[in-house]
Specification:
single chain; mainly alpha; Na+/H+ antiporter like fold; 81% helix
Length: 291
């Protein structure tokens, strides 16, 4: 357990902790610009360079992507029912329960746990979640359907172009591959650092409800991950990545959307903070379970 924590989980929280410390020392950090850079340049390059140069079976690749989509839908339906039963506002709490932090925390944890193969599968899961989050998230919070969000997403085109190369059985030209790989490499540390910056701005007041809802996110996510991995017959690294990614804490992006559309942003911020702290203990347990 200690080795799993030190080798896999600790580096994630150390980098996020540096961001938190930077914020607490009142140093300037243009989070908006960095986020735009990461989401519009870093993440698409990371997705393209990883998927287009895959050496794994296309069948397994399709399985992981489809499994991630089914897990997302399953988590959405389950969370909707739970929120109705507990009488929590669906519009405010459905996205935080559905969309875990598969980027800032999920990508590096899967990389540290399973190496480049793990990062590849994790990137596929991230692409599915990112496309959904950027379209369904604003729709749920605002109540207005807007397909234009998807059409404007660079991640979508990164997935399309990478799948073209994958389908042709060819790798992109070295210049393109090396450039996108180099640009993609700054994504994970900057995501973690920005997560720390974001957490430095949050506080917890209604602790009991935050703990309850965070437990739902982590517990339901793990259960759904195990179930879907079993249904799809995933094994080895693919199984481990799916379970890890579905078990992530609440994504910071939910807080940004809640704040933008004025939907209980303070409580969503508390969920991000509490679930992230709880994952410090749950992730080593899940990694031990997978090992």
């Amino acid at each position: 357990m200690i080795e799993l924590f030190s080798n896999v989980v600790a580096p994630v929280f150390i980098i996020a902790g540096l961001g938190w410390s930077w914020n607490r020392m009142k140093f300037h950090y243009d989070a908006k610009t960095i986020t735009l850079l990461v989401m519009n340049v870093g993440v698409p390059c990371l997705v393209f360079s990883n998927i287009s140069s895959l050496s794994v079976s296309k069948q397994v690749l399709g399985q992981v992507g489809l499994a991630a989509a089914v897990a997302l839908v399953t988590m959405g339906l389950t969370s909707f029912i739970v929120l109705r039963i507990t009488r929590l506002p669906v519009q405010s709490f459905l996205p935080p329960l559905v969309f875990g932090n598969v980027g800032n925390i999920g990508l590096p944890v899967c990389f540290f746990a399973f190496g480049n193969e793990g990062l590849t599968y994790a990137t596929i899961v991230f692409a599915v979640y990112a496309l959904s989050m950027m379209t369904i998230g604003p729709w749920v919070y605002s109540g207005v359907k807007n397909p234009a969000h998807l059409a404007r997403s660079p991640v979508l085109y990164a997935v399309i172009f990478s799948m073209v190369f994958l389908g042709l059985g060819k790798q992109p030209p070295d210049l393109v591959l090396k450039t996108t790989r180099l640009l993609g490499q700054f994504t994970i540390p900057m995501m973690l650092f920005t997560l720390g910056i974001s957490l430095g701005n949050l506080s917890v007041d209604s602790l009991l409800r935050a703990v309850f809802t965070s437990t739902l996110r982590l517990g339901l996510g793990f259960g759904v991950g195990v179930l879907i991995a079993e249904v799809f017959g995933l094994t080895g690294v693919a199984r481990g990545v799916l379970i890890l990614q579905t078990s992530m804490p609440v994504a910071v992006f939910n807080y940004l959307l809640a704040k933008q559309y004025e939907k209980n942003s303070k409580e969503v911020a508390e969920l991000v903070f509490v679930s992230t702290l709880m994952s410090l203990f749950t992730l080593p347990l899940i990694l031990n379970f997978l090992s």
